[in-house]
Amino acid sequence: MQRSLSYLLISAIGLTGCGGSGDSSNGDIVTPPPVVPDGLVRCDTQSLNNPINTSSDLTFITEANYHAGQPAAVIATLKGKKVSDYQFNWTQTSGPNLILKSSKSPVLAFTASESGNYKFEVTAVGSQTSYLESIEISIDAAGSAQLAARVDHQASEGNSVSFRIDTPDVNPPSQISWCIAAGPDVDVDISSPEKALFTAPSVSEDTLSTLRVSAIIDGQSVSDDVLLLITQEDAITSQYFDERVAKTFAYNDNSPYKDDLQACVYSNQLQQSCSISRLPLIGQEASIDTQAILDRVLVSHQWMGQNFEYFLENLDPNSDFATLLQSVTAIVISYDVRPSFYWVLTGAIYLDPNDLWLLAEERDTINEAPDYRSGFGNELNFLMPWRYVKNNSYTSYVVPRSVRTDRTAQEMMPDLASLLYHELAHANDFFPRSIHASLSGPTLLDDYLRRSDAKQLISDQLEILYPLASQEMASLAEVSFKGETANDTQKSYIASDISSFFSPDRATDYYAYSTRREDAAMLFEEALMSYRYAIQRDVAVTDKPDNPTASSITVDWGQRGRIGDIKLESRAVFVIDQMMPELNALSLVSGLPAPIEMKQGQSWSENLAISPTSSPQQNRAAPQKNYSPELRLSGDRHIKPVD
Predict the structure, then answer these.
(1) What own/partner pairs with CB < 8 Å and gap ≥ 24 does 136-140 have?
(2) What is the pTM of this model?
(3) Cβ contacts of residue 469 below 8 Å, gap of 6+?
(4) Which residue, 509, 502, 544, is CA-closest to 529?
(5) pLDDT tens digit string along 377-414?
(6) Which CATH number fits domain 19-231: 1.10.357.10, 3.40.140.10, 3.90.1150.10, 2.60.40.10?
């Protein structure tokens, strides 16, 4: 999510838990005259739009040439109208089958694997008018060497934008350079030359921007244009979403909440919380019902809702997530949400689609703008890493974005499951199903304030009944997660000091000390991951060398499956009983594996293979395709501590 929203989530409210170009005659697409910008230079040769008029106000913009194996796009625009006021839907009507993952956008992006003629049909539906038009294009055979820049798309003015080129292991591009081939000046971050990051500039009307990337492949000079349709939007009037959010739509077009979802949970015009009568919690209107959940899904791309639906129907056999989702108003999945979070102001959870993609074409559509990660705690001299493991292997997906590949649903599942357990624990802490019938509103925020003031939240009761003991860890958490300045004593602590504070206490993770809300969520997340999937969480205290990696940090103390420690049993049982009373919490927690102690003096990576196994083969770590996982530190997956 954007940086200012990250701050706003805790500070303002204090309640949270993410080819061608055209001119003005071509469908109102504007190309300003060439001007040398302060940032990225203009190309020596500018791209030109190829407009194709129809009998209606809808105009197509096509690229000058299309080649098999190279990313491409067809763009639909409307003369005298903003495309943001319309809902688009593309279908392919002839030609070899294409994978279309932006079919609800005015920019249809695709990569054809073979040459031939392709025909598409698009509908554009507004509040008073609608259009139906078709277009046919011809795709030539692939060239001997081609550069692939991904992915053409639409972005609202002020949105973060990312483009990336393919960098295969065989004949990778070299001498990479970028320039502006058409459209407005943009200040582009190309510090990593394989990708371009920037913010879509303000425009007075829908405007096409084209960047060109050039490189050498197999001794040949090649280039590719990548297109961005920048859409003009209404002024931002929301004090909550005060930076531009992506265009989203209801996943289920027949949802009875179709007209309320965006306005109430993801809008730059959101002025105040919507009433419960307008957008109630899912559980206030329906029992556990997948269709009722899908009626509350808001997405930036249709595939995001489809994959979420697949997850609920195929990877939730015990209906844990369908049950926990009763305590939210909506599920927002958008390419600009990073990281995921829950927000009581709207009652919705916001999911980073990085945890949902299955096809490379889906991953292509996810924005790469870096998520906000503070430098809090830089003066402290210890680290507390974490990871999820099974059979002495990482369960998190570790294949980097630069490797363009598909993944299986089983590879997707662990990260998404742990994320949902955590964020939905917040929702069920604030509004457990046991109090749904007694919510009086008029907004969820009103009910939250009443419950919080009366110390009625599950996390409030956890703190009263089973408080954490270490004041040192609580004070350090203020530094690491809330930006307080470290004092001299805190700066002097080394790993052994932290081990003596943390290991005897009853928290599952350092992040649990950030707020009582996070304490409850961490207990629930770790317990359910161990119980449902036999996936255990590692936590450790290590030193802090320069440029720390899994191999360079040394463990002073650590445990695998700390949630199974007898010291934590009463706390975990209480939280699970309150959030999911249908589970036998005492039996669940007492049946969790006992924690395994890490070996002091060994590195974090050396402490991966500490679980007993019956097979020598299982005793070896096996990250996907042998890619090294990144070092994850406590709290790094969450936007800010929920307070």
Answers:
(1) 136/94, 137/62, 137/66, 137/74, 138/66, 139/66, 139/67, 139/68, 139/72, 139/112, 139/114, 139/115, 140/65, 140/66, 140/67, 140/68, 140/115
(2) 0.92
(3) 504, 505, 506
(4) 509
(5) 789 999 999 999 999 999 999 999 999 999 999 999 99
(6) 2.60.40.10
